[in-house]
Amino acid sequence: MSKTILIVDDSASIRQVVSITLKGAGYDVIEGCDGRDALSKLDGRKIHLIVSDVNMPNMDGLSFVKAAKLLPAYKFTPVIMLTTEASDAMKQQGQASGAKAWMVKPFQPAQMLTAVSKLILP
Q1: What percent of the chain has pLDDT above 90?
Q2: Which residues form the Response regulatory domain (predicted)?
Q3: In this structure, what is the dihedral angle of CA atoms 57, 14, 35, 100, given to the nearest 10 degrees?
Q4: 116: Cβ–Cβ under 8 A, 6 or more apart, which residues?
């Protein structure tokens, strides 16, 4: 059975690139255009991994991750932050909110797939 990954980014082009990368590796993909939209997709279905941007309208990535982690079904879902933010302070905030990995845009598809395969839940 294929694993499902939720991609959260306000950039449609980024979502498309990540989606193509992940679908090409056999993953199912759900997309959210910001944190609030992504939270609405967390409806109890099994999501094996979340890839989220940080800077988004309506609800930013760190707030989204914190909110997702409060939901029992997603408490242990691993999160990769995919962002233009590269500062250590932001990375620490990401870790504090529950993110397991931090990738800086633009990313290499191979790098993304390696991180996903390491983190994805069985």
Answers
A1: 96
A2: 4-120
A3: -130
A4: 5, 22, 25, 27, 49, 51, 80
What is the b/e burial string over 43-74, where b = at least 16 CB atoms within 10 angstroms of the residue's CB?
eeeebbbbbbbbebeebbbbbbbebbbeeeeb
Query: Could you give the maximum distance between any two Cα atoms of the chain, in Å?
Result: 38
Q: Which residue spans within the chain are E strands per DSSP?
A: 4-8, 28-32, 49-52, 79-83, 101-104
End-to-end C-alpha distance for the chain, whole angstroms: 10
Q: Which of 110, 63, 104 is nearest to 85 (CA)?
A: 104
> What structural domains does the chain harbor?
4-119 (3.40.50.2300)
Question: Could you tell me the pLDDT band of residue 94, with boundaries at 50, 70 and 90?
Answer: very high
pTM score of the predicted model? 0.96
119/108 Cα distance (integer angstroms): 17
Separation of alpha carbons 121 and 113, rounded Å: 14
Query: 118 by DSSP, 3-state: which?
Result: helix
